[in-house]
Structure formats: C-alpha cells, structure tokens
Amino acid sequence: MEVLGLLADGFLISFEPLNLGLVIFGAAVGLFIGAMPGLGSVNGVAILLPMTFLVPPTSAIIFLGAIYYGAMYGGAISSIMLGIPGASTAVATTFDGRPLAMQGKADKALVAAATASFVGGTISVVLFTAFAPPLAEVALAFGPPEEFALMMLAFATFIGLGGDDIPKTFFSIFIGLVLSAVGLDVVSGEPRLIFMDLSGFMHGINFLVLAIGIYGIGEMLWTVETSRGDVSMSKATVSVARVFTTLKELLGTWKTMIMGSFLGYFVGILPAAGATPGSLMAYGVAKTITKEPESYGKGNIDGVVAPEAANNAASTGSMLPMLTLGIPGSPTTAILLGGMVIWGLEPGPLLFTEHKEFVWGLIASLYAANFFSLIINIAFIPAFVAVLKMPFTILAPVIFGLCVVGGYVPTLDMHDVWLMFVFGVVGYLMRKLDYPLAPAVLAIVLGPLAERSVRQSLIGSHGDISIFFTRPISGTITFIAIILLVLPLLKLIRDRKTPSEEGSA
C-alpha cells in the first residue's frame, strides 16, 4: 500500500502543468528523433540536455525520460517505412516490418509496433514500480559468467533465424563475430584487425553504420535489381476501420507481447546489455517457439510485435540499475545519470529515501510518456503511410540521403560513411546468395559483450572453464543454450542421413 501511496504522489508531480507539458513535448520530439536514422535516443538526449538547465531537476529528468520513450517508439517508423533502422534497437523490426510495408500493410505494421511498444512499456513500468529493489538484487547476481551464458543463449536462439540452412547461418554469425572484434582489444588495448592500417577502424565498427548499410543501401540495391528499374510503389492506405481491424488482430499476439515485454525488461536491467540485444533476442525466441517459423522475414506480425515490446520494456528496465545502483543499463541512461549528478541527485539506494518526490515523479511520468507516445504515434500514421506513395525516383534519393546522414552522425567521421557503402554492397551480395543477414547483425551486437564477459570470467577463474557450469544461474543458462545449439545440428545430421539411406535402399 505504501508503494501505491508513493505512486499517487508521483502522479500529482508528473501531472503538474509544466511537467505534463514537458512529457508531451518530449514524447513528440523523441518520436521524430527516433525516426531519423543515425540519431536515436542517445543523441537526442545528449543534444537536448543543455535545454533542461532552464527547469527544475525533476522536470528536467522527466523531459529527458519522455524523449527516451518517444525515441524508442520512433525507431520503428523508418525501419518499417524505408527499411532503414532509425536506431540499433529497431533493427529487428526491419525483418518483418519492411516486408509488411511493401505488401501495402504499412499501417498494420505501424499500429502493431506502437501497440506492442505500449504494452511492453506498460508491463515494464508496472514491474519497475512493484519490484524495483528485488530486481536490482537479481541484476547484481549476474556476473561475467552469467552474462556470457546469456549471450550464448541469444546465439543459440538465433540459429533458427537462418532457416534450414544451418551452415550458412553459422557462417553469417562468424562474419559478424569477426567484424565485432575490429578495433582495440578490450583487455590489452592493442589494435587488432585494423584493415590496411586505417585509423578509422581504431574505434571499431559502429553497429548502426553496419545496420544502415545492410538494410538501407543493401535493400535499395536489391530493390533496383529485382525490379529492373520498374519499381512499383506500395499501395499503402490507412483508415480508422483498418486501424481497429489491426487492433483486433493484435489480440492474437498477446503471448508474443508478454514474452517480449518480460524478456526485454529482464535483459534491460542487466548492466551493459540494453534494448538492442533484448529486441534481437525476443525476435529469435518468437521465431523459435512459433509453429510457422518460415513466415518470419516475410511479413509476420509477430516479428514486429516481439522486438518492439522488448525494446520498450528494456528502455524502462535500463533505468532500474541507474536509479538503484548508480550503474547505467544503456548509453542513454548513462547520459541521464550524468544529468542527475549535475543536478546533485546521487543515484543509489538512498535516492529512494532521500529524494522520494523525484523518484516517484519520474516513475509516474513514464506511465504518462508511454500513453502520449502511443497517441502521437498513431495520430501520425497517415503521414507516415503517405511516404510510401512517393515515386521511387524521389524516394530512392531520400533513402540514400538519410543513409549518408545516419552513417555520419554517430561518429562524425567520413570513414564510417564509406564503410556503410561497403556494407551495403556486402548486404546486397549476401541477400543475392541467400545468406541470412539477421545472425550477422546479432553477432556484431553481442560479440563485444560476449568477449568481455568470457575474458573477465576466465581471468577471475584463472582459466578454469568450469566456472560457466558450476555457478547455479550461469550453469542453468549454459545448459539450455547447449541444448538449443545441439538440436539444429542433430536435425541437420538426420536430414543428411535420410536421403543417403533412401538412395541405398
């Protein structure tokens, strides 16, 4: 009951005219920031941080939190409409969101993304409200061995993303792992895989550059080639009746939404994990447990719902270690943490007792930001759908320009722009040769996390690999990951034996 009383006080704070206005404005700004390739929540919060010095600390964090929420919603827009991930968190949404748009169902994909984001955000905020202290303790129990086991589980679930061609899937994963190793060694600091001694590789390969290259430039090249210059634009339409029809259809995806919400929230509370791995893992799990895995990548609505529910849940989850432990769960929360320190708000367990008004005002504002982000998103769907009605001769240069901007903005380095073009060609060739792209994308995201956690684990255990099996949490997760890895291999061996047996017979 005490929690409900504190939450009620928080709503009174968040619904003050200034704070409510900042929530609505922040959600709207965040929506468009998230939709712009290359910007995303990190850059949006960082750019607008100086503006918050004009308002009280609580109002400032509420405003930045609303931008964060809005950006998570907005990332799906360019992924669906243009095939360019607005942010790394929306890459998985591209897999099925873009095919739906090209089938004339852009409104369906956008409504599904917004609704799943709302469900994921709501569930995560409720969990945040009710279980903040215990979940913080659970997150603390996750050391390097547990984090590595979780990464292994993610790779295991994504084996199924390559369909029945297991060797091509493994090859795609290995390519992603090699690319993730480019840059400075995480332990020694020595340069490695610095191709042609180019200094631009020193900071590694930016994931967003890879994603924009593959899914922006690569898909555009594929469209031009397959259409032979005669590109038929999507006959996307939108109406109130179609929106309500989509909402009714989404009732059948409630299991996927709940799975994505809980998985995303749990991954989000783990330090250094965040929304991107959470959304990719949710997509992989959804495809693993479905009865129609072959429909994924071709416009399955569950393929939009799962990652969107997960990344919004993870965005809330990442705030938990920030507030309770002073450990940022994502790059965006790291900026929020910096803002809190500037305003004299010391994160940690004492924050909940010494600054109750701030904490519960922020938590209550997340409910409001989630609601207004949904309303603003759905209200602008007709404008988003109108984009697909543009002639391809106009749309292609727009996509190209957005890709260039998205490749340049994260690091302000032309090296990444040229690299983006290279990845575009590579993505096109992989598509042409029928190599799955999703496992490579997953590998370059999780590769650095997996490497850091495995090396920290082995250093701590003096090279003893049993540490991954003897600890209760890591042992259980590792065992499940091994089973998921072995099952496709057994299926591959069985399928190869069957034709040979039939031939001998």
Explain how this protein is built.
- It is a single chain.
- The chain has 505 residues and is mainly alpha-helical.
- It has helices at 2-14, 17-35, 40-48, 57-81, 91-102, 106-140, 144-157, 166-180, 207-227, 240-250, 254-268, 275-289, 302-317, 319-324, 331-342, 351-354, 356-379, 381-387, 392-408, 414-432, 438-460, 467-470, 472-504; strands at residues 183-184, 191-192.
- Helix 4 (57-81) packs antiparallel against helix 15, helix 6 (106-140) crosses helix 18 (381-387) and helix 11 (254-268) packs parallel to helix 13.
- The longest helix has 35 residues, at 106-140.
Walk me through the topology.
Layout: H1 2-14, H2 17-35, H3 40-48, H4 57-81, H5 91-102, H6 106-140, H7 144-157, H8 166-180, E1 183-184, E2 191-192, H9 207-227, H10 240-250, H11 254-268, H12 275-289, H13 302-317, H14 319-324, H15 331-342, H16 351-354, H17 356-379, H18 381-387, H19 392-408, H20 414-432, H21 438-460, H22 467-470, H23 472-504
Antiparallel strand pairs: 1-2
Helix pairs in contact: 1-17, 2-4, 2-17, 3-4, 3-15, 4-5, 4-6, 4-13, 4-15, 4-17, 5-6, 5-13, 6-10, 6-11, 6-13, 6-17, 6-18, 7-21, 7-23, 8-21, 9-19, 9-20, 11-12, 11-13, 12-13, 19-20
